[in-house]
Amino acid sequence: MKKIQANKSTREQFVQSIKDTCSTTDKVMVIAYSRQALQQTGDGHYSPIGGFDPDTNTALVMDVARFKYPSYWVPVDLLWDSLFPIDAVTKEQRGYYLLERSKSMLSLSLLRLELDWKGWSTFANTGLSRALQHSSMANSTSIEEIIPQIVRRFYGHMNKLSVRQTPQATDDGAEVERTFSEEVHKLLHQASHHPYYSIAYRTLQEMGALDRGAYKVQKKIHIPKTAQCVGECAGGEEVSLQAAMLTIFLLAIPKRYFTSLPLRVQLQVEQYKRLATLPQPLQEEVGRTEHQMEMLSDMSSTHCTDCDCFDDAEEPYKDIAIPQAKTMA
Q1: Which DSSP state fits 86?
Q2: 3-class secondary structure, 212
Q3: 45-54, 57-66, 179-188: the lowest-pLDDT one
Q4: Does residue 294 lie within any of the structural domains?
Q5: Does residue 257 fall inside a structural domain?
Q6: Is 169 left (phi over 0), alpha (psi -120 to 50) or beta?
Q7: Exposure string over 12-50, b if 16+ CB within 10 A, otherwise e
Q8: Which pLDDT does position 114 carry in this prediction?
């Protein structure tokens, strides 16, 4: 994901991004714009771009508030201008996001946050931030003292994590499923050998919550001795899925959430999660999960608080003074 503010881009770059994302299925453009600039009710809003018509030089806005406005075509100049009104929350100009399918995510993505930006805002502020800002954390001298406190205070919120148990559908069939399974075994093995794992495992055990409770997968994973694991994986090793998930989650927590902790602890956190030192595929999984958290944090801090998307639901399609194009490139 690439975040671009209007004042750090140009009209030409904006138009080119529209053309690029509308010419492929692997990229998506999401604009953060002012509804008022389009003569609509409300103000700040997010919607993806679904098409571009070169004959009329218009872009198709796939309005996510479909009960209020259907998809509509907008002149790109007007759409560009709609990015510049100052956002009431951030006090900055709006912009757009460029999202691209990650090739690595097609092969393996074990941990998934089942949250939209609103859920993450509540999840992070009431669970994660409060846990890390609690007075008991201020006197901690090491990350080994911090992790059990995070696990204990945060455990009730962990039902928002889920495990992807099967690979995404592809044409490779059984071969993809076999590879995916082997990669998951390797990932869990690597997570179980990170220092966070033993602390999380011991804490869950003391809580009487090991491999039961809020998690969707409630069993231990048996790691077979496969050709891919020879010399790296111990055949027959049992790994607690809960403790492994917590290990990945703890490693993925963005740096911004640790700023209230003592400097010594912050340095330890950086040392333990330095991506370059983590083995693959653990490095990729932590990076992906952290990226999810960062994206959700950005979305929750720049959401359309001044938008009335959920007002006037009884009037699903209001007339809008926007030129309508008939074709899409």
Answers
A1: B
A2: coil
A3: 179-188
A4: yes
A5: yes
A6: beta
A7: eebbebbeebbeeeeebbbbbbbbebbebbbbbbbbbbb
A8: 66
Same domain, 115 and 138: yes
**111 and 71 share one domain:** no
Residue 163, SS3? Answer: strand
Q: Which segments within 40-134 are labelled E, that is strand?
A: 44-53, 58-61, 72-75, 95-100, 111-113
The pLDDT-based confidence of 163 (bands split at 50, 70, 90) is low
The answer to whether the beta carbons of residues 40 and 311 sit under 8 Å apart is: no
Please name the amino acid found at residue 231: G
- Residue matched to tokens 């912009």: 95
Contact 58, 78 (CB under 8 A): no
Shared domain check, 139 and 23: no
Domain count within the chain = 2
Q: Do 72 and 125 belong to one domain?
A: no
pLDDT for 151 equals 85
Integer Cα distance of 302 and 284 in angstroms? 27
Residue range of the domain that includes 200: 105-301
Asked if residue 279 is part of any domain, the answer here is: yes
